[in-house]
Amino acid sequence: MQRIGVFVCHCGSNIAATVDVKKVVEVIASEPGVVHAEDYQYMCSEAGQEKIAIAVREKKLTGIVVCSCSPRMHEATFRKAAERAGINPYMVEIANIREHCSWIHKDINEATEKAVILARAAVAKVNLNTPLTPGESRVTKRALVIGGGIAGIQTALDIADAGYKVDIVEKTPSIGGRMSQLDKTFPTLDCSACILTPKMVEAAAHENITIYTYSEVEKVSGFVGDFTVDIRKKARFIDADKCTGCGACQEKCPSKKTPSEFNRGLGTRTAIYTPFAQAIPNVPVIDTEACIKFKTGKCGLCQKICAAGAVDYTQKDEIVTEKYGAIVVATGFDTISLDKYDEYAYNQSPDVITSLELERVMNAAGPTHGHLERLSDGKAPKEIVFIQCVGSRCSDDRGKPYCSKICCMYTAKHAMLIRDKYPDVNVTVFYIDVRTPGKNFDEFYRRAVEQYGVNYVKGQVGKVIPQPNGKLLVQGSDLLDNKQILKEADMVVLATAIEPNKDVRKIATMLTASIDTNNFLTEAHAKLRPVESPTAGIFLSGVVQGPKDIPETVSQAGAAAVKVVGLLAKDKLMTNPCTAKADELLCNGCSSCANVCPYGAISYEDTLVNDHGIRETRRIAIVNSALCQGCGACTVACPSGAMDLQGFSNRQILSEVDAICR
Amino acid sequence: MSHAKNQAERIREISGVNPLKCMKCGKCSATCPAFNEMDIKPHQFVSYVANENIEELVKSDSLWKCLSCFACVERCPRDVKPGKIIDAARQLVVRERGGNYLSADEIPELLDEDTPQQLLVSAYRRYKR
Question: pTM of the entire structure?
């Protein structure tokens, strides 16, 4: 029989206001095995942990139950406290009487009854706990960054500068991401390319960084410190070692009508292309769906004119397999589809554009060479209307429930830049709220109003109606004047909501990283661990975690890099000892467990077994404890009950159930 | 419960609208084809119910100017549906006149020039299933 101490935490009033903690102590003290029970205001505090140490010493405790918050919060804290007091850390159990009890109940009697039941279950489990010892696993001193935008580039640079090898995998033909599509950046209005391209060059030249562009992560296995990743390098049909980046192939390519992804479909590109002039690497790819050679077998012009002989139509996709200690997800964002927003006439009129499209229109390298003009007729606009919150802050199924965070600021930027360069153009911004929390942000917005005369109207636009004369009739609210405004505009710009990149759900599944209903990856702790996924070894950088602007993204990218470096700096990691184990007398080698194991941790060995005096060789399941993550799938699949999870054995779980049902 | 509170509660019940979901964007008023005819504007319907100012609301001409086109209901980004509020306010007025519920068979003989057309349109919308 164990000698168990039960410690009931008040958590200030978080628990004590809804659970009668004294009553819990009183009832639990008479449970079998319990030799000590007390309550305290904050068990996680130094004084609280000291109470555990004293009780261990004085009452010779062999097991501990802490009735407190979720084990995700403080299980590690109390395990360490137990270890310091001389008890095996796996002899500690947490009864979660906060999240599972006080926070979700109102009635003190009901909550107290449930707290007692949860405590009783934990005591029943500790009675069957056995001391466990963690093993060790190695750390591969190399990191993978998925996504080559500003978030991924910054994370990679910071990891590489700390002396570790890092690989960037980027889906498109060049690194640079969304930031490379921007013209100017708020609140300082420096040119996006001028601050981004040096970083791209630095990443490409860094001896510790390997960049895989036009590549995608295809398969991930392993665990923290020891991931194995398959990267698919899509065929570029260009030999990157031979290509000089002269661009002659792109000039001569006769297939010129594919919408340019980089210009958001506003211009066209050739079938053999680099997305933009400063692309890194400066090596084109061939789009086989547009290429005449691939479609008809004729043409081959690019190969004929390539002086370096770099064009190779026979190139195949290549799979690179590499090991990593840590993986950073930096897959960024896209704007949402506006197909469901007919009222803004985005699909009806080329003069209704998104803000990201306006970035391309304003950019000297864009489809209009930086001239502000209507895309329908090339005429200079005189009246421009900006509409805020298009698809953001929507609780219906058309948009997103969150604030996209960057739109207020980039709209102020656009409005200001237009008024500066074209003072004869009137700019009206329809807004719901102007949100400018950030250093020098509100000052920036006020400058747009006070210095540049941008007309801000409080109210949303109801509809945009294309007129026969080519103008756009904008019908909106002016809530401060309690009026409905009808305004003829030449151009309408929609501050379209942003959403995580479409591929992120697939990547999260490969990484077993949790993801929320909006497809943002979940943090390990919203406040205290914002750059880590709850899955060990997976880190978050940039908009994949939530909407953010460039300064915030760069800060977070650095934070993620520090966490990665902290992991890679270790030589060994402690492994979870709560792994599966087969009872060799019960195992019949049926393979059911190996078939369900998501980690490939189970193999079979012919083993000499002594079954009550009968010695024979049997096929027995062997669990690789370094690979086993303790999910327990095998224990459920095993038909003979041979598989058991250490620390969560069938007996332990059933005794908990018994205690709850008692 | 005070009369005003009770009335506001009835409008919430009939309309199924929670006025607290409104983020005051004004898209309803921006989209309304009858805006200029109304004394109380569509976005105000919501705040009148939130503030339990039903006495004023039911006196408003807007009840009978609303076309029941439901553009505001379609386009409201917060699922607040001001059109349903005005619909509910109309019902409140009609019920208080002692009219209460009508069966579909009774409607044709009640048709006369004084019956606001909007009332029939919204009644048919409501009971079209």
Answer: 0.85
